[in-house]
Write a structure and sequence with these properties.
The complex is a heterodimer of chains A (262) and B (743). Chain A has 262 residues and is an alpha/beta fold. Chain A is built from 10 helices and 10 strands. In chain B, 42% of the residues are buried. Classes of the chains: A alpha/beta (262), B mainly alpha (743). The interface between A and B is medium-sized, with 33 and 30 residues.
């Protein structure tokens, strides 16, 4: 199987070390604050992502998940704090330049190019290269056999799940080392969500680090090595995926379980 | 409830009301012209006469069509039905709207009155203009419709034969009138009517041999073109050439209409070059027959070598034809006792130019043969139809694109000389220039998806830059340049202007960007109006912008008032621009534009810098418009800020949308049709009404063909759908159309 991480000059994947010193983190978000005018959407958020991990950012509507994700992907600028990627400050670098550093981002809401075919969408994902890498393309189509079936179809005519697959596949065409996924499960049937999460696991197994922003806490935490919980612009909890999944407060807030009995 | 009231309240009743309202509107549209001494005159004439009843009847017919649409539709989809309908409409339009007799400026009814008042007119003409014209039309329609309903093969052939007869009767009746009056008549009515009848004849003949239940026009056209690539074009070109040699006029100064044979006797005993003498005796026929036969045989056997030889023969024919017609016209220009004194290439009849066009088309056909044989495309049109990548293209037959290009080139080069001077002016100053502007705006609106309502500003900047550089403005340049040298400067200045406008505004989207560009357009015009010291204000350019001079050392050509050379200049520059844009569309840049237009967030995620590419689109569009500005300035000589009013920006946008946003051939066709239409209507309807008809065409077009005349590939699939799963997709999906592309 092709190694997706083999970008030009990319370092060998490091083993994930929990709690390692900041210098070895792949992505280090340090105390960022983001404002929409007078409103402080993020009030000093800090977290980190290590090479090879899947990290989940959880939170209810309005907690600041997407704002965090947009800030990391360069669509927004933090007013305070810093974001460091492989030792380089990336806050303020515009979104379209980040991909050249190996950060690829799948925006919320399945942004495919609706009037381009699946094929053309994938080709656009490799826009940063002069020509697309056919090995990567073959690998992506292996991951998503559904896309191979619909290769000549216009993306706008695909189902929601297929569009999400296409959006992820397109991002992979840019050979990312860090993949930012914003709510990949949004509006999809449980079966499709399970499929997509499976694929995320596979992508990660190929060596791509994943930062996953999700509302679907149960499945995200089952998948993630570590998780952070955002509430009204602050990180209120963090820990290994399994631990968070077992936490009563998480179960109460995101899984809707009655804890009254305890 | 009262049953009448109940009917009026039903959907059907409301629809009838609307249709009758439409009838009243139509009556007002087409009615009498107002008078200054009686303000209500036009309304009285329109609404209290038989005129209203006629139009109300049209309303009723429309209502019946709506009401019985499911039934009618079944028949309309049968082979031949649309052709019959289109032909009949064409004849009706010809006999109601178009002019039929130029000297008196008369329409059909006017000429009918004239004929009725004239004694000694031939029986055929008096019958035709008396009653036969409408009677034969109704007869053809009735027979054709009966054949469609009964699906009777014999009846189809009868209808087709009747249509041919009707065409012959119409042209003969009109010709007799002209002969009796002894005038040269360029009225379009009869020609259009003949074409209408011929359309009916072809449609009915095709229906007669068709075995399908439902017409498959696209498949049919492609089957014809794809049967033997190049054959259809070659056959048409040969037929046109033979017609031109046999019948058409070749040399036509005032009150002379010399055919090919007449030219020979006319120039007998003069010092005409021997090759031209031979040409007018037999060489022309020989060339046409040899080249035509070679191309057709090559096409039939799909032979590469024969195709190339045929193309070469046609090229030789073209050269010899041009040498010969140049010989007779320059001889005529230099001799003293002829009617023609204007110079070489003047006073030629249609036949001479049509023959040139035929040779060029034949050469193209030969190349089509060679190209498709070379490609080894033994696949038939039917196979090509299954190729999904062919998608919604109308012409998918092998070689069809090249054939269409060849025919278009032949028409673009050799048809303009046959036009009236007024049409040549229109061709250059409105059709050609606006085609250019539409090509430029298509980059901005169609490809990058930016709504620009001030596009004409760049045109103005191009024109004023030219005027400055040649020293026609109050401010003088450090050194004056020949006018064509202004082109690179105009491109550069417009490029910079585009970036200056774009840089601060491209962060805006959709409506906001539109308003800013609108403001920019007005600012440029108002600056031109108000800076007297620089632009000479509303009075326009101080001195004439000189006409271009092309001096290549061995050839020197000076442009003058004759519009034809400007057309060729325009055509040459346009071809360069089109080739460049064609490459651009399929380049990395073109794909980046498509991505930004479709989804800006996703485009950014894919690593596309939206600001950079939007700026590039703005700059490229602006510089195209700058070239148009140079050509405009040097053509008209004098211009003022009124030439760059806001409405022209809107018109150019309308051309692009009408032609098909994002489609290069669409933008060209849209501009050509919508600039041709007002010129055409100039002679046919009261001048105040022209805009109304153009508006009506736009509205009808946007209802029935919202993707435009020649839709861009992507937008066409959006509207047509893509196979079985598209049945549920909407006509315009969310995010489609103008608004959505920016939102």
């Amino acid at each position: 199987m092709t190694d997706l991480t083999k970008g030009p000059g990319s370092p060998e994947p490091l083993p994930a070390v929990d709690g390692a010193p900041a210098a070895s983190h792949m992505l280090d978000v340090d105390d960022i604050e983001v404002r929409y005018g007078a409103i402080r959407a993020l009030k000093g958020v800090s977290f980190h992502v290590d090479q090879g991990e899947i990290v989940a950012l959880l939170g209810a509507n309005g907690a600041g998940k997407t704002t965090t994700q947009k800030t990391v992907s360069g669509m927004m600028r933090p007013s305070l704090g810093s974001i460091t990627y492989e030792g380089q400050r990336i806050d303020g670098i515009p979104a379209h330049s980040l991909i050249n550093l190996g950060i690829c981002h799948v925006p919320e809401g399945r942004h495919v190019f609706p009037r381009m075919t699946v094929d053309e969408n994938l080709e656009m994902g490799a826009f940063r290269f002069k020509r697309q890498d056919m090995d990567v393309r073959a690998h992506v189509l292996d991951l998503f056999p559904r896309l191979q079936e619909r290769i000549k179809q216009q993306a706008g005519t695909l189902s929601g799940g297929e569009q999400q697959m296409l959006a992820i596949g397109r991002a992979l065409m840019g050979k990312p080392r860090l993949l930012l996924l914003d709510e990949p499960s949004m509006g999809l049937a449980p079966l499709i969500v399970a499929q997509i999460f499976d694929i995320i696991r596979q992508v990660n197994a190929d060596g791509v680090t994943v930062l996953l922003v999700e509302q679907n806490a149960a499945q995200a935490l089952a998948l993630a090595n570590r998780g952070y919980v955002l509430e009204t612009g602050e990180i209120v909890m963090s820990g290994a995926g399994k631990d968070l999944l077992a936490d009563d407060r998480i179960r109460a807030a995101y899984l809707g379980e009655e804890i009254a009995a305890s | 409830m009262n049953p009448a009231l109940a009917f009026l309240r039903s959907d059907s009743g409301k629809r009838l009301g609307a249709c009758l309202g439409l009838g009243v509107a139509l009556a007002l549209m087409t009615g009498a012209t107002g008078r200054q001494d009686d303000y209500l005159y036009a309304i009285k004439e329109d609404l209290f006469t038989f005129h209203l009843i006629e139009n109300l009847l049209i309303g009723v017919v429309v209502w019946l069509l709506f009401t019985f649409w499911p039934v009618i539709r079944r028949y309309l989809t049968r082979p031949g039905a649309l052709g019959l309908l289109a032909g009949a409409m064409t004849v009706i339009v010809a006999q109601t709207v178009l002019g039929w007799y130029e000297p008196e400026d008369a329409k059909f009814s006017g000429l009918a009155t004239l004929v009725g008042d004239t004694n000694g007119i031939s029986a055929l003409s008096s019958a035709f203009f008396g009653w036969l014209a409408w009677a034969q039309l109704i007869a053809v329609i009735v027979v054709g419709a009966a054949a469609l309903v009964l699906r009777n093969r014999a009846l189809f052939w009868v209808g087709a034969a009747m249509a041919v007869a009707a065409a012959i009767i119409a042209s003969q009746a009109h010709k007799k009138v002209d002969e009796l009056a002894g005038v040269v008549d360029h009225a379009t009515g009869v020609t259009v009517a003949v074409w209408g009848y011929l359309t009916i004849a072809v449609a009915l003949a095709i229906a007669a041999i068709s075995t399908d239940d439902v017409a498959r026009t696209r498949e049919f056209v492609n089957a014809v073109l794809g049967w033997r690539p190049g054959f259809a074009l070659g056959a048409a070109a040969t037929a046109l050439a033979l017609y031109s040699l046999g019948v058409s006029s070749w040399f036509a100064p005032k009150s002379l209409n010399a055919t090919l044979a007449d030219v020979h006797s006319l120039f007998k005993g003069t010092s005409l070059a021997p090759i031209a003498v031979q040409y007018f005796i037999w060489l022309s026929w020989a060339l046409v027959i040899v080249a035509g036969a070679l191309v057709l045989v090559a096409a039939y056997f799909r032979s590469i070598i024969l195709g190339i030889v045929g193309a070469a023969a046609a090229a030789v024919g073209l050269v010899i034809t041009m040498i010969s017609i140049h010989a007779i016209t320059s001889l005529a220009a230099n001799s003293e006792n002829t009617y023609a004194t204007k110079g070489p290439w003047q006073n030629l009849g249609d036949g001479a130019w049509w023959t040139c066009a035929s040779f060029l088309a034949l050469a193209a056909a030969g190349l089509v043969v060679a190209q498709s044989a070379l490609k080894g495309r033994s696949a038939t049109a039917a196979d090509a139809a299954h190729d999904p990548s062919a998608g919604p293209r109308f012409l998918y037959a092998p070689g069809a694109t090249l054939a269409v290009l060849g025919a278009a080139a032949a028409a673009a080069i050799f048809i303009p000389p046959t036009l009236e001077p007024s049409w040549q002016t229109a061709l250059v100053t409105s059709i050609g220039i606006y085609m250019f502007l539409a090509i430029g705006l298509n980059v901005v609106v169609g490809w990058a998806g930016l709504l620009d309502l001030g596009f004409i500003a760049f045109y103005a900047i191009g024109a004023y830059t030219t005027a400055y550089l040649v020293g026609s403005l109050p401010v003088k340049p450090p050194f004056e340049l020949p006018v064509l040298w202004a082109i690179p400067f105009a491109i550069a200045v417009c490029l910079i202007a585009g970036v200056i406008l774009g840089f601060p505004t491209l962060r805006l989207r959709g409506d906001y960007l539109a308003i800013v560009t609108l403001g920019f357009g007005e600012i440029v015009r108002l600056v031109a109006v108000n800076s007297n010291g620089i632009t000479n204000g509303p009075r326009g350019t101080e001195d004439q912008v000189p006409h271009p001079v092309i001096n290549l050392g061995f050839v020197k050509f000076t442009f003058g008032l004759d519009q034809l050379p400007y057309w060729y200049l325009l055509l040459a520059v346009m071809v360069i621009v089109i080739i460049f844009f064609r490459r651009l569309e399929n380049s990395r840049t073109g794909r980046a534009w498509a991505a930004i237009r479709e989804d800006e967030v996703a485009a950014q995620a894919a690593g596309i810098n939206p600001v950079k590419y939007k700026l590039l689109a703005f700059a490229i569009g602006a510089s195209t418009s700058g070239i148009a500005g140079v050509l405009f300035a040097t053509n008209v000589g004098f211009f003022n800020p009124d030439n760059f009013k806001f409405e022209f920006s809107i018109l150019v946008l309308a051309y692009v949308v009408f032609g098909g946003m994002g489609s290069l051939p669409g933008a060209i066709a849209g501009a050509a049709v919508l600039t041709w239409l007002p010129e055409f209507l100039r002679d046919q309807v009261p001048s105040e009404d022209r805009q109304m008809y153009i508006g009506a065409v736009l509205v009808i077009m946007m209802i029935f063909r919202p993707a435009g005349l020649i839709p861009a590939k992507r937008r066409a699939t959006e509207l047509r759908g893509h196979g079985p799963d598209s049945a549920e997709s909407q006509a315009v999906p969310a995010g489609g159309g103008l608004g959505g592309s920016y939102a």
